[in-house]
Each structure stands twice: as structure tokens, then as C-alpha cells.
Design a protein that fits this description.
This protein has four helices and eleven strands. With 229 residues, it is an alpha+beta fold. Strands 1, 2, 3, 4, 5, 6, 7, 8, 9, 10 and 11 form an eleven-stranded mixed β-sheet that branches. The radius of gyration is 18 Å and the shape is globular. The model has no long low-confidence stretch (mean pLDDT 94).
Amino acid sequence: MASSASDLEILYEDNHIIIVNKRVGDISQGDKTGDTPLSEIVKDYLKKKYNKPGKVFLGVVHRLDRPTSGVIVFARTSKALERLNKMLREKQLKKTYWALVKNKPSKPQDTLVHYLKKNPKNNKSTTFVKPTDGSKKAILHYKIIKELETYILLEIDLETGRHHQIRAQLAAIGCPIKGDLKYGFSRSNKNGGIHLHARKIEFTHPVTKEKISVTAPTEKEDILWKNCN
């Protein structure tokens, strides 16, 4: 967990955006826990690095669940934030995830289509095969990219961005993510996280229009992730 600005792993930075490798346990932005969010840690880093007086602007473009790790984009200007938000709505940010599961999916690659309904009380999404009241369509594409001794490494491309989408959809096909008790894995990970990692993000820079492609390294100390590389 990034407890201070000095712990941050910066993957890309310019005047308009900053891309960070989120650690397991970091929260993307403030919540009811009152824990210091990653957004505030990044602000602190920018304030110190550039000797900025007063408040530092930082826009949260998208979020990652607390138990997951990986690439996350923040906007350093309101113009960049506005454009990135529009790109996100129009599905112009391509996100690729890695997930470790114990059970091998029945197909080496597939497209999963479900309908997810979020329950705010337990912060969990329920999966349905047909539309139901209050549900939202969820689509992802997965493929097996490596078979370890005990676990299977899946690469996942999201077509929609629903609450706990990857976690819920993989659980629905009998492949809960390692450590994900909430979605049916048998035991938790020691660090309280799950083996879901936002591996890569690709998009057109909101200001310069250059192609941005950033890959986030997996946790160095984690033997399972090490075996995936």
C-alpha cells in the first residue's frame, strides 16, 4: 500500500496526465473508511515535486477496487479530465487485466455476457443470464495465456465497465479470482487483496493526441505473479 508520495510507482507523467501503478489496499479516492486515498498521495507527490503553493488539481478518471492492483490514470488539468471522461464514456480507453483463477474455464477463450445488479448494502454485484429489474449488461473477453502449477492466468479485455464486473463474471462461470472471498474463492490472500491486476491501458492522449500505451508491472514480492511474467 502506498502510504506516502515516496512509495508511488509512476508509470507515465506529463503536464496533463499522470499514470500510477496502484498497490493492493490503496483506495482510488476518498471513501467512508477515512483512509488516505491514492488521489491525495498523488497530489502530495505533485505538490512536493513542483513546489506548488496552495491546492493541487487532480481529477480521478476511473477507479480500481481496493483489493486489486495495477494501472490507474489521473488528470492533472480540468481540460484533460473533461476529455478523458468523454473518452471513457465512449469506450475509447482500452483496459487489459490479468486474473489468476484456480479452476480452468471450459473454453480457452470466450466472450462472457451477463446482467449485473449491484447491491449497495453488501457492495456486491449479482449475476444474471437475462436482463432483470435494475440490472446492467456486462461484456468481457478472456483468454488463457498461461497455466501455472495450481492456477490459470487469464487475460481480460473489458467491453463494459460495471461494478465488480470481472470478479462477478468469472465467478459466474465457476472461476472465482484467487483470494476473492466475496465472489466464492475458498480462502483470502494474506495481504487482503485478490489476484486481479489492471495490466495495461491504451488510449489517445487527451491533449497531444499521441498514442499512449502503459503496462503496469505485477507485485515484485508475489511469487505467483512472478511466475506469470
